[in-house]
Amino acid sequence: MYILKKPKPLGKAKKRSKENLRLLNMLNRYITDTSAVPVSILTRFWADQAAAITYKEIRKLIEDEEVSEEDLLNWSKDYSSFVTDTLEPMWLEAIIVGQLSSAILNEAKEQGFEFDATDVGIRNWIKDRGSEFVTNAVQEQKKAIQRLAMKAVREEMSQGELARVIRPCIGLTERQAQANLRYYNSIKEQMRKEHPRMKEETIVRRARDKALKYAEKQHRYRAETIAQTELAEAYSAGAHNGIIQAQEKGYIGHVRKVWVTARQENVCRFCEAVEGVSKEMEEYFDVGKCGTVLFPPAHPRCRCVVKYVEVKE
Predict the structure, then answer these.
(1) Contact at 8 Å (CB) between 260 and 275?
(2) What is the CA radius of gyration of the chain?
(3) Entry's InterPro entries (predicted)?
(4) Which SS3 state, helix, strand or coil, does residue 278 take?
């Protein structure tokens, strides 16, 4: 799961070969056609989490200045269920679709190769990905709420007001939660200037309503980011594992992978820097500040792909 900020776009899109365009278009179509369902499930999931925590529990969190072990355990159970019920089936489907994109694998299938979606490599990938997702999601949620509580306390908000600010932010990243608080405070300040006779409770209520609507947009954006990134990750994992399976069964020989950047105008400079870079199957791509990856995505919402090329020896 990715929590870093998406890199800034580089500029105009570059031309791609027909094969590269085919690979990019397949991934884009799949994400576009598939992401709506997990986005809807995630937004409802966070709404349910927010509804499950009482204002009394939030006030206790504010007093202690940390999320309780009970809340962390409950969040961990929630995210584990989400992984089992939603992400694992989604990942498996994306893995199966991803291996269909490889021209080399399609040729191997004509010779009798059959992709095994129950292969140990795929099972381990899903297991590891699920554990990583739960851990990162819980820790990010913990950081977001604790930082929000500490910042709001320094601004001398009452516990009641702060509790109502925190609750809609459950499920947001630390960066998003802080942005929501800044927006809430800016609305209050603006209304005080524009309506000096307005009662303070009215100002607070209206600011809270606007912050709530903003939080809904933030939740949707984060849900879209997670859905698109997880679909892309599983899709690429499917293509990668398919090649490995075909090699192990003797259908194909030496294969290298080539990074193909997304052809949109908003491709980031880190991905553009590895455009056309060729690596051995188990070598990692160095994508600058995005880190090292075995295959795309390199960052949230990344739409890059890998092209597998058989080396004639």
Answers:
(1) yes
(2) 23
(3) Phage_head_morphogenesis_dom (IPR006528)
(4) strand
Distance CA 294, CA 244 (A): 13
CA dist., res. 103 & res. 36, Å (int): 28
pLDDT in tens, 241-300: 999 999 999 999 999 999 999 866 678 899 999 999 999 999 999 999 999 999 999 999
Residues 258, 309 contacting (CB under 8 angstroms): yes
Residue 217 pLDDT: 98
pLDDT exceeds 50 at position 11: no
**Mean pLDDT, to the nearest integer, of 99-119?**
95
Which pLDDT does position 127 carry in this prediction?
97
Give me the chain's average pLDDT, please. Answer: 91
Task: Give the separation between CA 49 and CA 42, rounded to whole angstroms.
Answer: 11
**Residue 65, CB half-sphere, CA atoms under 13 Å: how many?**
5
Q: Which residue has the tokens 């059959």?
A: 114
Helix (H, G, I), strand (E, B) or coil at 68: coil
Q: Name the nearest CA neighbour of 174 among 128, 129, 127, 222.
A: 222
**Residue with the two structure tokens 């694998």:** 105
- DSSP lists the bridge partners of residue 259 as 306
Measured distance CA(201)–CA(209) in Å, rounded: 12
pLDDT at 149: 84
Which tokens sit at 98? Answer: 């991803």
Q: Which residues pair with residue 293 across a beta bridge?
A: 285
d(C-alpha 131, C-alpha 121), whole Å: 16
Nearest Cα neighbor of 144 from 3, 297, 288 is: 3
Alpha-carbon span 12 to 174, nearest angstrom: 31
Q: Give the C-alpha distances (Å, rounded to integers) separating 68 from 73, 78, 146, 152, 213.
A: 9, 15, 11, 18, 27
